């Protein structure tokens, strides 16, 4: 349904609404999906929208994250009101509305930009899932040249698979529900499983309740993942696993998972080309919430390739990195558990709001995931313009394996923790062991960010 600016889509009648919230936008009621870890709503708009949230419980505090959006809510008589501006240059607005911090499940609100040239039912080479319906299809396999289009308000129960396909797309404003796709499925397929594919677009969709790795290009070349929203709370529910792939762009996404939000790996279990070097990966303009397990922005642990190189994480908000308590979790992490030379990695312009694990965790290690006999290397890594803006001050670790395998040429530039520049390992609360050429640089240019991530 559209009124010129706002487009809303009714959910299928047999999908359970959230018991926690009712939502109206520009005076129109919007369906709110229920997940075990959050409530979720999604609309499309080209201009600012006026949001009214009515929680079905009492509360005292409201926080709208990312804090970098600068959105303040008005609360009166238990009703929350605020304006949600559109993202810059056609980007989505990706928000977490949190009441009393951890005491209640949050409401995630996604305001999408209008779609460009969406397909129509009957278009050739398009699998079209209509709005307002629950499509219980089990497994959808894409072949070269095909598009899976999930219209806003459509819900697909099943998984999506493609093998050595070229020029494929998964698009729309609809949802893939992963609650019935078990982690131990007999084919070992992930929720969206792309094996040895080329020229891939995944855009606009939402993945809910995944029970396994949720979006995995393995041995792929030329992948663009845009405005994808992932919300789950299952064990081993990695949001995006970029396995042995090259020329990958992830932008304007929102990921809330119990395990790794995004992980860059290399091993050939899913396709022979996934054992080739990983290179040219860019993750930018996105929002991440890492819950009880794993890491937010991760390289590792499976690094069974010769090289992982030219990787950039830029302009991202990590709104939460919860305590894992197993010693390996963190926000910016490289866990090189196998033979790869991990090099030319940049973390740039990252805002961290609530870090209860490590801020930086770079390790060359032997771990339960390791298979190679030889340890690898970590070299030429830059962490620049990273700000911890809320929460408690986190610790960091940079650690080598032995005298022949150590992180080297690691530069930390303009790191600010709760307003205090990190000028050395002490002020950064960093533990180092078997490290060569670790440098801290404070230029004083770490200003407030001006580019919203979502």
Compact summary:
The chain is built from no helices and 40 strands.
Features of the shown structure:
six-stranded mixed β-sheet; 51% strand; globular; single chain; 454 residues; mainly beta; 40 strands
Task: Provide structural commentary.
This protein has 454 residues and is mostly beta strands. 0% of the residues lie in helices and 51% in strands. The protein contains no helices and 40 strands. The chain has strands at 6-7, 21-25, 28-30, 33-34, 39-45, 49-55, 62-65, 74-76, 79-84, 93-99, 107-112, 126-129, 134-142, 147-150, 155-163, 166-172, 175-177, 192-195, 198-203, 206-208, 215-218, 221-226, 229-231, 240-243, 246-251, 254-257, 262-266, 278-284, 287-290, 295-303, 307-321, 330-336, 341-352, 358-364, 377-388, 396-399, 408-417, 420-421, 430-433, 436-441. The chain has a 29-stranded mixed sheet that branches. Strands 1, 4, 5, 7, 10 and 11 form a six-stranded mixed sheet that branches. It is globular. The chain starts with 5 loop residues before the first strand and ends in a 13-residue tail after the last strand.
Structural topology:
Blueprint: E1 6-7, E2 21-25, E3 28-30, E4 33-34, E5 39-45, E6 49-55, E7 62-65, E8 74-76, E9 79-84, E10 93-99, E11 107-112, E12 126-129, E13 134-142, E14 147-150, E15 155-163, E16 166-172, E17 175-177, E18 192-195, E19 198-203, E20 206-208, E21 215-218, E22 221-226, E23 229-231, E24 240-243, E25 246-251, E26 254-257, E27 262-266, E28 278-284, E29 287-290, E30 295-303, E31 307-321, E32 330-336, E33 341-352, E34 358-364, E35 377-388, E36 396-399, E37 408-417, E38 420-421, E39 430-433, E40 436-441
Parallel strand pairs: 5-11, 12-14, 13-15, 14-16, 15-17, 15-18, 16-19, 17-20, 18-21, 19-22, 20-23, 21-24, 22-25, 23-26, 24-27, 25-28, 26-29, 27-30, 28-31, 29-31, 30-32, 31-33, 32-34, 33-35, 34-36, 35-37, 36-39, 37-40
Antiparallel strand pairs: 1-5, 2-3, 2-6, 4-5, 6-9, 7-10, 8-9, 10-11, 37-38
